[in-house]
Specification:
Glyas_Bleomycin-R_OHBP_Dase; VOC_core; single chain; about 25% helix; 4 helices; globular; 2,3-Dihydroxybiphenyl 1,2-Dioxygenase, domain 1; alpha+beta
Length: about 150
């Protein structure tokens, strides 16, 4: 379900930078519970700290307002999403959702099957981030044969 980045792309990495008031809680949530591996960590003057976590393949999803409303309706019973929401593909959306709620995440919406054949949940994470966990239920090949799906 993953693909290699285009060799023509000048962009080599997408990095999302998050300021977390409770740095330790954010590390526990994303590194220790969600399972993002630590790539690097740095400390500086005045208790400055940063940890860079590996999150696998990155994509940038651009949606128009109508699509965002549709996603919000399907994924979170119409509760509006934040302007920027992070989505993580996981192997077991239900288990990951339970683990993250136990680690301090606030459940917004339980896992549910979407029309685009994924199992999605939504949470509020440390650092004020809204996240979606999704588990693909069909391969990209299966989904691309359905109406409304376009693939370059």
């Amino acid at each position: 379900m993953t693909s290699e980045p285009s060799p023509k792309s000048p962009v080599r990495q997408l990095r999302l930078v998050v300021e977390a008031e409770d740095y330790e809680a954010a590390l526990m949530f994303f590194r220790d519970t969600l399972g993002l591996s630590e790539q690097a960590a740095f400390e500086g003057e005045g208790d400055a700290r940063v940890t860079i976590l590996e999150a696998g393949r990155a994509t940038l999803e651009i949606s128009n307002p109508a699509q965002v409303r549709l996603i919000d309706q399907v994924e979170a019973d119409g509760q509006p999403s934040a302007k920027i929401r992070i989505a993580f593909e996981v192997d077991d959306s239900a288990a990951a959702t339970r683990d993250l709620v136990e680690a301090g995440g606030t459940l917004i919406a339980e896992p549910r099957e979407t029309p685009w054949k994924s199992l999605n949940s939504r949470l509020e994470a440390p650092g004020g981030l809204q996240i979606t966990l999704f588990q693909e239920l069909e391969s990209i090949e299966e989904r691309s044969s359905k109406p409304g799906f376009k693939r370059p």
